[in-house]
Protein 1
Amino acid sequence: MIKDICINIKSVQNSNDNKDVTELFTFGKLLKEKNKDGYRIYYEESDAMGFDGCNVTLDVTDNSVTLTRSGNAVSNLILERGKKHHCHYGTPYGEFMIGVRTDEIKNSVTDDGGDLYLKYTIDINSGFLSENEMFINIKER
């Protein structure tokens, strides 16, 4: 099953006393593969998120989300509830490794769309960088 979808992403990043909120509305695809748990979500990034010219794939299950970014910047982030992963993170300005500790994942995505909530902390060389929340709403197009 593949469906055309509308995606609304709100990202909140807290770093020390600074709070940065970014929103993106885009179109994408929702894929459910036979005999597989979870969903795959595809969309193109925009300049609003700082990754114009990139494609994003989210592999979503109840306990984990893998974000793979390709194009002008390449990243592979693994968000797994209650665990920390060291992940490759690419930006248009360079690449580095980050630690991603996921505190919470709420997933209500179905064949008809739904919501995905992620709460995670990012560090570089074990030094705190930011606490992050991502709210993703998916609707059939």
Protein 2
Amino acid sequence: SIGKIIGGGGGDKYERIQSLVTDDQLVNFAADFCEEQDPNSAIRRYKAAITRIGKEAFRSELSSFVGAIEGGDKCDSRARMFNSRLTKLEEAKKAKR
């Protein structure tokens, strides 16, 4: 819901994601938010994803994912769900080539 994004509890995270400048900041935030069991492995995966899809596509997907979770989407594993979304993005980009 728009009100929640603009003024509610989720707003701070969106602004924070937009303010992450380096790849390191972005992947560290993602690993933390996704509650990764093995953050170092996740960070390597996320950096590889940024190389394949681009930083802004990664940022956009991360924002969308955070919004879904903050909006009440339930999942067994944030890490698995986010990685699945990244894989779909990478496959879509490959198909466009």
Protein 3
Amino acid sequence: LWNAAVDGAPRSRHKTIAADISLMGHDRHAVLNAARSAGFNGLGLAQTFLHVDRRSIPATWYYGQKSRNLWNS
């Protein structure tokens, strides 16, 4: 329902096995490592959240240059 309310993609993984995890108050790399350990292999690295999902072909991406800078600093 939330995906539709925010005009999300019709085939969004959020409808099956995906979540966006807030990083507020957490070490971003610790959350990323925990997600990997839990078997999530679709990893979207944003400034304020981490997108996680399970997919057949592993993928990691950034949500813009500011996110890339934060994750690689």
Protein 4
Amino acid sequence: MREDTIYAPASAIGGAIAVLRISGPKAGETARILSADITKTPRELRFVRVLDGTETVDDSMAVFFPAPHSYTGENMVEIDCHGGGQTVQHILALLSRLGFRPAEGGEFTRRAFLNGKMDLSQAEAVMDVITAGAQQSLKAAMQQLHGSVSREVASIESLLLDALSGIDAAVDYPEEAEADAYAALPEQLLAAHSRMERLLADGRRGRVLRDGMQVVILGRPNVGKSSLLNALLGQERAIVTSAAGTTRDVLDERTSIRGVPVRLLDTAGIRDAADEVERIGVTRAWKALETADIVLVLVDSSMPLAPEDRALIDETAGMTRIVVKNKSDLPCCCKLPDQIEAAAVAVSAKMGTGLEALSERILALAGPSRADAAGITNERHLHALERARLAVDSAMMAGELDCTATDIRSALHFLGEITGTDVDDAVIDRIFSRFCVGK
């Protein structure tokens, strides 16, 4: 436990109710500014008056959580007071007079981690729960907060530790255990490798639950890109006119598809532009493709396929792409190559038809199969897991037991970076630096 006691608002100031948190060895002394000794009735939410001497500051509710049965693992108090700024600031000043200090960003969760109430992956999930931008994002974050990543990592660590213990036995007792160690190693390492491969495959797709799927709408001018953006958003965000080249820059909007967060990027029409501003817009459109999870190449189905359309289809052939035939409410005059035609999706952005099928195709190509399949969505976790997999690859190819053991220990180190059992203080500082105060 830390020696100092900290406090902070855990909710926004200015609403009807504000929640104030106090954590540390002297948190129970908060009773000195309350009309009742809440330490005598732990875990019981009680009506109290907050007092400044004999003056009543506020009518509130308060609860005391004794260590270690609290969020931080320390003595904790929560005060639910009225949320007006003057009220909150007065109570915070009283807490300061008790000798408590204001908490730093993320310090409550950091103490929970340091006191063993959660591992590092669960601590990071706290912030993911707070910042979740869509339903499935929240579901995935809650699963990680409840230990889904921890359990997956522990299962892999168990396989590697079994292999390592077999090697150690073979080194100590070569005549009795060496043959058994060599016999068991391939199966143990392959099982660990397979689990990591599955997690990485799910995680690469599941990353969109945390960071959002980036979908770039690409096409020549006046094929309906902005109309499609508006239709997918369900609101008028992009200016739509009959004049070609209305969109001059990348328009970035957020929405969700089946609860999965999506960033939709409407780009400038791709053509040889004479106007300098439009040329910059076209350049930015191509730049957006570099980080796209999926590209929607839009063509006007009411017109014959133009050379610009063909060029875009050819240039995006190696990308995760959907060719979208817009204006399907009009007679079709656009003939695509047979293979592309078979996979194309017909929509009418104006009438709102075909959008359901397009959304389904987007999720099928770039979204997670289901939220619970994406056990790892954090880029830091995926990077550590990838390094652990490479270490196991090396272990599988090593011929000598001591080399295999070194590679296995390296893999265990990288797995420990995920849960925090083997991680540098600098990494911990960086993780909690993005937390807000009170969390």
